Structures are given as C-alpha cells and as structure tokens.
Amino acid sequence: MGSLAQPKLPVIDFTKENLNPGTSSWFSACNDVQHALEEYGCFIAVYEKVSLELSNEIFCALEELFDLPSETKVLNTSDKPYYGYFGQHPAAMLHESMGIGEATTLEAIQSFANVMWPSGNDHFCELVHSYSKLVSELDQMVTRMVFEGYGVEKFCDSHIGSTTFLLRVMKYRAPQMNETNLGADVHTDKSFITILHQNQVNGLEVKTKDGEWITVDFPPSSFVVMAGDAFLAWSNGRIHSPLHRVIMTANEARYSLGLFAFHKGIIQIPEELVDDKHPLQFKPFDHFGLLHFFVTDVGRQKESTAKAYCGV
C-alpha cells in the first residue's frame, strides 16, 4: 500500500479578467472561497496584481531592513500587541518580525521608515505602500465574496470602511546545529483575515480539521488567505480559524509578509447567520479588545480565544 497523498489547500484564481461582481465567474469564486474558509480556514489565492518584480523587490527591501542593527529594530514599538518589534525571544529563536500599522497609508509607512532610517527611505516606502494597497484589494474582494455568499452584503461597505491593516514583516533564519526548527509555535490568528506572502523558502504548515498538518507550497504570484478568530466569531462559527505554525527545514532564511485586517470598532454577528442549525455562539465584540485579551495570562491559555472572550 502506498502512503496516502498529503491533503493540499484549495487554490483559487483571482487573476481572471472578468472576475467582477455579478458575473458567473464571480459567483463561482464566491462559492469556492466560502467552502475553502469553512472547510480549511484558508486557501491559496493566485493573484498576479502583485507583479513578480514588486515581489522580488520587496523581499530585497526586507533583507535590508532585517540587516539593520538590533538597537534600531527595537525602536519599532506600539501599545497594540503584535504591532511592534519581536525578536531574540528564547521560545522563538529563529523568528524576528516588525509591524507597520495603518499599512495602506503612505504616512504610516513613512513614519516607520523614518525610525529605521533617520534620513528616510523613499524606495522602501513606495514599495511597501504599493504592496499593501494591492494586497488590501485582495482582502476586500474576499470579504465581499463571503458577505455576499452569506446574503449579508448590505453590511459589507461599512465593514470594509472600518477596516485597518497591520503589515507584519517576518524573517525566519535557518536553524543551526542542535537548534529547534520551530519558527513559529502553533497558533490561530486574531485578525479578521490574514494574507500571507513569502520568498521561495517554505515553512508554513496548516492543521486540517481532522488533525493533519499540511505543508503549504506557495506557487509564484500566490498568497495564503487565512481566516482569523474575529472572522470565526463574525460568521457565528461557520468559518474555521485554522491552527498553523512555521517549521524551518531549509538552510536559508525565509522572509514573509502578513497583511492582517482588523476592525476598528465593535463587530456584530449578523442575525442572518443565526438560525436553528446555528444558534448564536458569540456576542458583539471589540476587535482590538480580542487582541489585547489574547496576550493576557488567561487569554493565552484558552483553546479558543474568541469563545473565551466573546462566546455566549
């Protein structure tokens, strides 16, 4: 008996020329997206709006950024969890990351760059701004598809209008002799949606509902779109927020970017998503409150952050 083929994440193509709301290709993509997020909590999006040239340039810029001295990088601070510098942590020796809040606005990227490079770095700002804007368009398209698929599109524009984006840039170095190869421990995201992109070095693994780990292979021009705990709660438990981790098996550094969508206010669970089969599971909740709760001692110990924070 040969071993069973490893499950793979669904791949959904967002490059179709005619992928416009109301068209048959839009409806079919809506179905695919909804099914993937319910079954896997994530999927691979082929999205060629981010050109290979932009992608290559942004990874060169990340190498330059992470080569800065530690005393510069630690100046990336924030009062919001996961918005500042993380690195040299005993539990995650291979991982280093920084955050840029309001990442779709040029001003926020410039203020980050001015801390890293006191004389400024216009090239970095332009790259990151182009990248974040293009990827936020993918986020909005996925959001619209899901709201439409559930018949609650009337809430979509106000939701998108209340969304703010955090761009986290990440470096995972190759493990040395006798070091663990764990780049990031098992977790779920606290965002509404996370969109991940990487250089050619794999490492991301996603756990399926039946407990199998899928090693994610990113084809060129592809992104992993992943539901976070806030999306799980908003959907009244229909959408899956998957456990994932990073395991470093390569002997070169993995650079990745995560665009995290957060809602700036209170997230309401649409009453259309509550019925006999799906009784109400979550109360309205403050999205940044969920994020702050997660970093408390109590929050860290809970299997489901969303259930512990705003479960009925």
Q: Strands across the major sheet, in which order?
A: 1-2-9-6-11-4-3
> What coarse outline follows from CA principal-axis ratios?
globular
Low-confidence sequence ranges: none
Number of separate strands: 13
- Give a quick account of the main beta sheet: strands, pairing sense, barrel closure: 7 strands, mixed
Structural class: alpha+beta
* Rg calculated over all Cα atoms: 19 Å
The overall pLDDT average reads: 96
Order of helices and strands: EHEHHEHHHEEEEEEHEEEEHHH
Q: How many individual helices?
A: 10
Query: Helix fraction?
Result: 25-40%
Q: Distance between the terminal alpha carbons, to the nearest Å?
A: 47 Å
Question: Approximately what portion of the residues adopt beta-strand conformation?
Answer: 15-25%
How is this structure best described in words?
The radius of gyration is 19 Å and the shape is globular. Helices cover 34% and strands 21% of the residues. The termini are far apart. It is of the alpha+beta class and 312 residues long. Strand 1 (11-13), helix 1 (24-39) and strand 2 form a beta-alpha-beta unit. The strands form three sheets. The protein has a seven-stranded mixed sheet. Strands 5-10-7-8 form a four-stranded antiparallel sheet, with no helix packed on it. Strands 12-13 form a two-stranded antiparallel sheet.
Outline the secondary-structure elements.
Elements: E1 11-13, H1 24-39, E2 42-46, H2 52-66, H3 70-73, E3 95-100, H4 106-116, H5 122-149, H6 156-161, E4 163-172, E5 182-187, E6 193-198, E7 204-207, E8 213-215, E9 222-227, H7 229-234, E10 244-247, E11 254-263, E12 266-267, E13 285-286, H8 287-294, H9 297-301, H10 305-310
Parallel strand pairs: 1-2
Antiparallel strand pairs: 2-9, 3-4, 4-11, 5-10, 6-9, 6-11, 7-8, 7-10, 12-13
Helix pairs in contact: 1-5, 2-5, 4-5
